[in-house]
Design a protein that fits this description.
The protein is α+β, with helices and mostly antiparallel strands. The protein has 2 domains: 35-197, no CATH class; 206-238, no CATH class. It has 4 helices and 9 strands, in the order βαβααββαβββββ. The protein has helices at residues 64-72, 98-111, 125-130, 148-160, and strands at 51-55, 74-76, 132-137, 144-145, 167-172, 177-178, 191-192, 212-215, 232-235. The radius of gyration is 30 Å and the shape is elongated.
Length: 238
């Protein structure tokens, strides 16, 4: 039974608002897939605070990159060094050769200090020159050879597409040779540019006389440094 007054128009049906189209999420829903702006229009790189770097897989020594990454991988944080000095400071104009700065900083700050007990850049430098470098910023800017133009493009994509967390440098070590069972800290000895370049293999461990047992080296003892690197033996059943 109608409750409205005679001749009154019927109420309009309720309108259901359609869903507002949005930019679909990217992999895992972490970020939008489309750029909010044209990447080529990005000229300010204040959002870039660091560029992580990793060592790529070696085609023959499949575990080499795992160990080298454990020792050396980190992030290039001196981003201000890549831009021309201005007053006030800004990150708009890249210097003439930012790639050389990146390569040198990574070598001197992360590889050389971990290369040997007394770091010496001499054996590392020629091997470092054989490494290849590429840069990427997610699936929209895959790995490309690191150069002035590709560095700028990768940072532009990282800012425009919210891919700051995926900006990354990959260091190729495929031109290097790794001695089986090597010490990954010994560049120039166990890491060389050819199999003929390996240094002398380490000698066999010292033989323990029968009836004696080795007591641990006191090299790590902070209170008895005068006995550094000495090994003591005790006679059995003394």
């Amino acid at each position: 039974m109608a409750t409205g007054s005679a001749g009154a128009p019927a109420p309009a049906p309720l309108a259901i608002a359609a869903a507002t189209p949005t930019t679909p999420a990217g992999r895992g829903g972490r970020r939008p897939t489309g750029a909010t702006i044209n990447p080529r229009s990005v000229t300010n790189f204040e959002e870039i605070t660091g560029i992580p770097f990793v060592f790529a897989r070696h085609p023959m020594c499949h575990d080499a990159h795992i160990h080298v990454n454990t020792i050396c991988s980190d992030a290039f944080m001196d981003v201000d060094d890549l831009f021309a000095a201005t007053a006030p400071p800004s990150r708009t104009t890249l210097v003439a050769d930012p790639v050389a700065i990146i390569k040198t900083k990574i070598r001197d700050d992360f590889v050389v200090p971990n290369a040997v007990d007394t770091p010496d850049p001499a054996p590392v430098a020629p091997l470092w020159a054989r490494c290849s470098f590429s840069i990427s910023a997610g699936h929209r800017h895959p790995n490309r050879r690191l150069a002035l133009a590709t560095l700028r493009e990768a940072m532009q994509h990282a800012v425009a597409c919210s891919l700051i967390h995926e900006l990354k440098i990959a260091i190729g070590i495929q031109a290097l040779h790794f001695r089986p069972g090597l010490n990954y800290l010994q560049w120039g000895t166990d890491i060389a540019d050819s199999p003929a370049g390996f240094g002398p293999a380490p000698g066999p461990p010292p033989v323990v006389p029968p009836g004696c047992w080795p007591i641990r080296s006191l090299h790590s003892s902070p209170t008895r440094t005068s006995f550094t690197r000495e090994i003591f033996f005790g006679a059995a059943h003394r």
